[in-house]
Amino acid sequence: CAAAPATTAEAGTEATPKTERRKRVLSGVQPTGSIHLGNYFGAIKNWVKMQEEFDAFYCVVDLHAITAGAHDPKELIKSTRSSAAIYLAAGLDPERSNVFVQSHVSAHSELCWLLNCATPIGWLEKMIQFKEKARKAGEDVSVGLLDYPVLMASDILLYNADIVPVGEDQRQHLELTRDIAGRVNNLYGGGKWKKMGPKGSRAPSGRFRGGDILRVPDAYIPEAGARVMSLTDGSAKMSKSNPAEGSRINVLDTPDEIAKKIKRCKTDAVEGLEFGDPTRPEATNLLTIYQLCTGMTKEEVLKECGSMRWGDFKPALTDAVVEHLSPIQARYAEIMQEEGYLDGVLKRGADAANEVAEKTVADVRDAMGFMER
Ligand code: ATP
To answer: Which is it for strands 24-29 and 55-60: parallel, antiparallel or unpaired?
Structure first.
């Protein structure tokens, strides 16, 4: 398994000779519902490419999934298994990537608590996603929702991840992760990072310096165009938590469901299709989905579809989506049928993850002055 991390280079200090430590990547999707084209093109498909080059840790972030408030336990377990199976069906190879469930590694919760106590509450109250989601949740907003970015920081920092592939929507959370790591290093690791940032305001990325406890990660924003928007409102992102089922195409949707959703999706009365017109976000979005599913360039898409009417383009788009998703769906069915396979992969993934995570959390406990066990 690709775990292979606890080498001498694991610590990554300046004193450590440059050995074969591959850069490490970590990412995850919340099992808050069915995985959709946005999660797939914005995250999972890139993970598959990255597993070739990086020491990869990909988790189903089930602890994050409950931050939205009361949830249905049966749905959570179903969605967790299904998400993990989609990771594999989409091409994550358990021989190359550590695929696991976040709650199977208890260090995520423990580090989150330790980081909570080093994070000023004002940093969290400024998070745009918190403000947006809290507005919707009203009085039901949970402490967990406010704390979501600290849990995300724990996920990343536990594995000393060098890079974190995130969509634009998560960029602010990643900046916060960098700030939290810098603060912990500063408070408990000898304060070296502060002197090196511009005006001491930001933690520099990359390797540890003497005294640092946590590695400061870099964001990796995937190629432009991987952001997929809602089918009912081309200017909002496609999302699991949107109550309108017709706003997203799920990776496991049947051809019929896909055809119906595309037939009903919002369009306009303008003739011809084009990318990038700010007054026609739906046209850009549907052309982008077509481009992503076919692997064509923008120019090729425009050559083929630019002069089409919506009535001709929609069936072509349906075919492209169905064609792209059907091998993934077939593999998914096999995975779900193979008794014990998924559990075995997740167990091995969690074992490898635990090995790395336990070491990091022990370092943080140590640095913060907790008595040895
Ligand atoms: P929720 O609605 O529950 O917040 P979500 O569908 O927005 O969920 P997340 O689980 O928060 O998705 O995100 C998992 C990953 O998928 C992240 O890397 C995120 O950037 C990416 N992602 C989510 N939605 C989109 C989208 N519409 N386009 C591109 N990437 C996306």
So the answer is: parallel
Q: What is the per-residue pLDDT for 41?
A: 92
Tens-digit pLDDT profile for residues 27-62: 999 998 899 999 999 889 989 999 999 999 999 999
pLDDT digits (tens, 9 = 90+) for 334-362: 999 999 999 999 999 999 999 999 999 99
The amino acid at residue 36 is H
DSSP state, 224?
T
| Closest C-alpha to ligand 1, atom 21 | 39
Would you state the structure tokens that stand for residue 121, as one six-digit string? Answer: 């509450």
Residue matched to tokens 């001498």: 8
Q: Which atom of ligand 1 is nearest to the CA of 68?
A: 3
Q: Which domains does the chain have, with CATH numbers?
A: 8-224+339-368 (3.40.50.620), 245-336 (1.10.240.10)
Determine contact, residues 57/107, Cβ cutoff 8 Å: no
Tell me the angle at which helices 310-337 and 281-294 cross, rounded to the nearest 10 degrees: 50
Q: From the CB of 349, is ligand 1 less than 6 Å away?
A: no
